[in-house]
Specification:
Radius of gyration: 24 Å
Shape: globular
Low-confidence stretches: none
Helix content: under 10%
Order of helices and strands: EEEEEEEEEEEEEEE
Largest sheet: 13 strands, antiparallel
Oligomer: single chain
Length: 271
Amino acid sequence: FIQFFSGIQDWAGKIDFDYIPSPNHYIRFGISHIYHTFNTGATQFNEVLADTTSIDTIIGTPNVYAQESSAYFEDDWMVTKKLKINYGVHFSNFYVNKTDYPSIQPRFSSRYLLNENISLKASFAMMQQNIHLLTNSGIGLPTDLWVPATNKIKPQKSWIAALGYAQTFKVKNESCELSIEGYYKKMNHIIDYLGGASFLGTNTDWQNKVEAGEGWSYGAEIMLQKKTGKFSGWIGYTLSWTNRKFPTINNGKIFPYKYDRRHDAEIVMSY
């Protein structure tokens, strides 16, 4: 028989603090540290011959060890009765193969009440992800592998911005809410298998089977929700695009990725 396996083992420690200097501020901050051990793929072959001789061997790429340190700060600030904002920043450093990947990731979100029933929302965030999801998209096993950033493969970086509108109203004294939100996300240093490559073939390091590219995700969602009463539920519709671009995949042209959900409608009812 043949078995393929991979995995991640983590040892982690963290501490978080809450601080409320006044009724208008709710401050959170903390630090954490994680020691990662990545098994990025190994194949076990076991064969029993006619003379009952058993051959059992495991081959694959060596483990990757990494350390991730981070600290964060955020504040929920009630600026006025109408305006509330949350702002903060996340610091991190990913150390792997004698290489450091530091990052500063600001986050901001806000809500403004036009009146007691209508609100506007806006948000912006920058992110760095040090672990990649590598998907085998060819014919065969639909295997997903989690692999780390290395001295050859950079961490993924992205930013996302969103705008939203929400309104509450009553229908026969029952509370309802209408919300509309649009977003745009840009991603860099995302990875995918080169054409014809997959997680099989352990004579080649996985780092030599992938290439880095960029991606975009954007769209809008509208939802009508009834929250109270014996009969409740919601109707939602999402129009969105998710695209990728790699130097050698699809001749370097932009193409829809597997997370592309051009039209997504749902109806949920509860009585």
